[in-house]
Amino acid sequence: KAGVTQTPRYLIKTRGQQVTLSCSPISGHRSVSWYQQTPGQGLQFLFEYFSETQRNKGNFPGRFSGRQFSNSRSEMNVSTLELGDSALYLCASSGQAGHFNSPLHFGNGTRLTVT
Amino acid sequence: KQEVTQIPAALSVPEGENLVLNCSFTDSAIYNLQWFRQDPGKGLTSLLLIQSSQREQTSGRLNASLDKSSGRSTLYIAASQPGDSATYLCAVTPDYKLSFGAGTTVTVRA
Q1: A and B: number of Cβ contacts within 8 A
Q2: Do B32 and A48 touch (CB under 8 A)?
Q3: pLDDT at position B25 over 90
């Protein structure tokens, strides 16, 4: 079974630009969640999608948005990039929504650098 | 707001020694607690998931305990190997979100 695939692996953008990251979950998984990892703040929850609906959102500004398609693939968009958005962005898939009963499976992340 | 703390931040042990990693959380109203492993530059690998009604989970050399009332979980790794070198993170689910600790970076010396 293929794992969670995130593309691209690395990305360099300039302040003010926007970026779109992609995540393909494990086949059959309908829940996709996104996380930001930085040395200063650690791992922080961004949002979760289940069956094309955003179920939950973390404490991030509206510049961070996402969506999920009917095949469960998900995209995350960050507009008007700031230097502080430089981070490793991870997505995870799960067979169930809400992180309750089934383990999360993570991709290897997209490393975003904002200059 | 749920705060998750992992102490120590780093740990170095000789091969063969047992590892004890600690995780504490401030709000005991959690649905579950998960332990993950992260290798440098990689995503997280789920190690153990403990439901709030459970006291412990075991998988091979790994054993994790959960004491909700005291807000603590401990991950034991028996007979450590160099391949166990990684950062170990715990995360709790107080609602529909995950709250992570900062992790403990483990180095197992051959």
Answers
A1: 64
A2: no
A3: yes
